[in-house]
Specification:
Strand order of the largest sheet: 2-8-7-4-5
Structural class: alpha+beta
Largest sheet: 5 strands, mixed
Helix content: 40-55%
Strand content: 25-35%
Length: 355
């Protein structure tokens, strides 16, 4: 007897196919559900510009039951979910990024980022001259035009309220010690980007010119003095070098005679406290050392002696041994027939005689 065929519903592979189909349907249904769980949010443009006053409008629409936040702040929408949000940029903002977010309970939130470019109009500012000279009293006047009904400031000076014609002027006074001054002129008006102009003012006042003339004269005098000093030092150095060279040549020429004359001169100074002139005479005297005039001169020129102290020693000898008066002692010290000291050396001796 022939076997009865199984129904298709009883075959194992049939149920496997059913399970796979149901799984695919379930997955497709889940994706759709996920899409529906994100709240709707549409921004008409994510890149916009402000108007000349720095104002821009972000427009779009969202779920009418959603809560709209702009940069974290709750913003109202129309009953149909459409919105128009006013954003104002400051004059110093080149651009601004704004976050627009829609939220609804049971739905995923939606976020859009909007970039706003600042197209705010710059305030008008024009100065007549960016380089000014003061008058003889040290005053200069800044003149120009700016945005009507604006405010003009020159550095930290009080604000200048500009009228309908836009014209303004401001007086600046420079101190006598100021060579120049740089100032900044700035115009401000609500709804406009502020504008700036730099102005340099040079001092041409009478007092400043007189001051500069004195400084210049002083500078030239100091330069001349320095030049003369340098010239004198140069000549002195040349003379010193020439003298040193001549002395070396003289020393070499005199040889032993010069050295002997110097040795004798030192003996006369140390033991007999003689003056320079007296030592020279003793060195060349036919009754003394009989050195040549050149050798004697070499000796006294190179002798390291304190003639003031020699004169004082001689003066005390006259005072103690001969009981002479100060005046008589002085005469004896300076006499060409006596000690032959100079006047200043004799004065030193008399001044310190009783020390």
């Amino acid at each position: 007897m022939e076997k009865q065929k199984k129904s298709i519903f009883k075959k194992w592979w049939f149920w496997i196919i059913i399970v796979l189909v149901l799984g695919a349907i379930g997955a497709g249904t889940g994706d759709k559900k996920d899409e529906e769980e994100t709240v709707s949010l549409s921004v008409y443009s994510t890149s916009i510009e402000t108007n000349k006053h720095g104002v821009a409008w972000i427009k779009g629409e969202t779920d009418k039951k959603a809560t709209l936040r702009v940069d974290g702040k709750v913003t109202k929408t129309k009953s149909n979910g459409k919105f128009s949000i006013k954003i104002k940029l400051s004059p110093h903002e080149e651009e601004k990024k704004v976050a627009v977010e829609a939220k609804r309970s049971g739905f995923k939130s939606a976020l859009r980022l909007v970039t706003i470019e600042n197209a705010m109009q710059q305030a008008e500012l024009s100065v007549e001259n960016n380089l000014l000279d003061t008058d003889e009293n040290g005053k200069a006047i800044i003149k120009g035009t700016s945005e009507p009904h604006s405010t003009v400031k020159v550095d930290d000076s009080p604000a200048i309220e500009v009228g309908a014609d836009g014209k303004f002027s401001h007086e600046i006074s420079l101190d006598p010690d100021e060579e120049n001054r740089e100032v900044m002129v700035k115009v401000e008006k609500d709804g406009y980007v502020s504008a700036e102009e730099e102005i340099k003012i040079e001092n041409h006042s009478k007092s400043y010119k007189e001051k500069k003339a004195k400084e210049e004269a002083k500078r030239k005098a100091e330069e001349e003095q320095a030049r003369k000093k340098e010239e004198a030092e140069r000549k002195a150095e040349e003379e010193r070098a020439a003298k040193e060279k001549a002395e070396e040549e003289r020393k070499a020429r005199l040889g032993v005679e010069g050295e002997n004359a110097l040795s004798k001169a030192e003996q006369y100074s140390d033991s007999m406290k003689m003056s320079k002139a007296a030592i020279y005479d003793q060195l060349v005297s036919e009754y003394g050392e009989q050195f040549s005039a050149e050798a004697a001169q070499y000796a006294v020129d190179n002798l390291k002696a304190d003639y003031n102290e020699n004169a004082l020693a001689k003066a005390k000898e006259y005072q103690e041994s001969m009981q002479m008066s100060p005046a008589a002692i002085r005469d004896q010290l300076t006499s060409q027939y006596g000690e032959k000291f100079t006047a200043s050396e004799a004065d030193y001796a008399i001044k310190h005689l009783n020390n």
